[in-house]
Amino acid sequence: MTRRTKYICLIVALSAIFLPSTALAWSFSVSPVEVKIDNLPPGEEAEFNLTIHNRDDVSHTFILTTHNPGESERRQGRAEFPDNSWVSFPRQVKVQANAEAEVRVKVAIPSQQKWAGKDWEIWLAVAPEEKELLVVNYYIRLLVSTGEEVKGGPNVGLIVGIAAGALLLGCGVYYLRCRTKPKHP
Amino acid sequence: MNQRVVIIALVIILALVPCWSALAVDNSTVTITMLTDKYVEITLEPAEWNIGDVEPNRPYVTSPTWCTVTNEGNCVVNIYIKGEDASWVGGSGYVWTLSSDNTTAVKKYALWYHIAYDSADSYTAITKIDTQMRKTNGDAIQLIGNGDQKQFGLKLLTPLADTSTGHFYGDRQMETHIAISAVIA
Known about the structure:
Strand content of chain B: 35-45%
Helix content of chain B: 10-25%
CATH architecture of the largest domain in chain A: Sandwich
Mean pLDDT of chain B: 85
CATH class of the largest domain in chain A: Mainly Beta
CATH topology of the largest domain in chain A: Immunoglobulin-like
Order of helices and strands of chain A: HEEEEEEEEEEEH
CATH superfamily of the largest domain in chain A: Immunoglobulins
Order of helices and strands of chain B: HEEEEEEEEEEEEEEE
Strand content of chain A: 35-45%
Number of helices of chain A: 2
CATH topology of chain B: Immunoglobulin-like
Oligomer: heterodimer
Number of domains of chain B: 1
Shape of chain B: elongated
Mean pLDDT of chain A: 82
Largest interface: A-B, 70 and 76 residues
Low-confidence stretches of chain B: none
Largest sheet of chain A: 6 strands, mixed
């Protein structure tokens, strides 16, 4: 009997309350749902705006992050985005009641030849800061294709051009000097 | 003399041609395409599950139609689900780790979801990895927009009793969140 009572006490003592935080309500939308950047040369950057529409009667703060989708979730032919830090935006945005806020998103690819001619996909996540047990989260597909040309780094074409020009100039000067040199009998 | 000047000028022009052609190779145009007329918006009703006091190692189940996900946006979306560890509200360091293998243990709990009108008792584990919601037959949950709805229920299995330290772990309010995400299909 004593053992049975002890067991029941233990169970009651171990009980916990599995509850969400205080009751909240929110409704919001995000546009656009997909952004495609084409021919972005490594070394350059592109910018666009996301619009968060808070349809609630009170202001809310929204958290923005990035997410790398799995291969089966990406668009066909898209590889994983190499570095999430290349996409920059404000981490938090406060949107007034029944209002919209625009969020500037910048994509900057480092100036390296190895990033040329690539097709990547990354998702931008937008979620409210306040949370109930269930939380709504939106993903925006960001499709980035890089150009073949690399900007900002050493311009190989220019260097070769200058070298070829200097060589031609040198040959020209040498030819002129040879022509004008007096001929001795 | 005049002939020399003309020849020098020609040589200089000839030498500069490769440089100009190298500088002229800059015809890249970055294009950004956005579906600005599309927006993503889903609602969850309800978003709370007030279980109350729970006991160790016990299952708690909602109705299979407990939560309704409604696509209020104007594009077809795929729905994802992700859980997290439950933490002690007002305390620190005491967590229930979300199971990734359908099993529970001390301080380890499990969550499942069930799509309404799917095979009876067919529950799919909710893990900390964002996973597309699917029926038992593998069909992905997709909402076509403009009010399209799906319903689902939850099941919780609480951790085993924690007697290792000799402390009571009762009367603690545990909090967790389940992210329901939408992304354009």
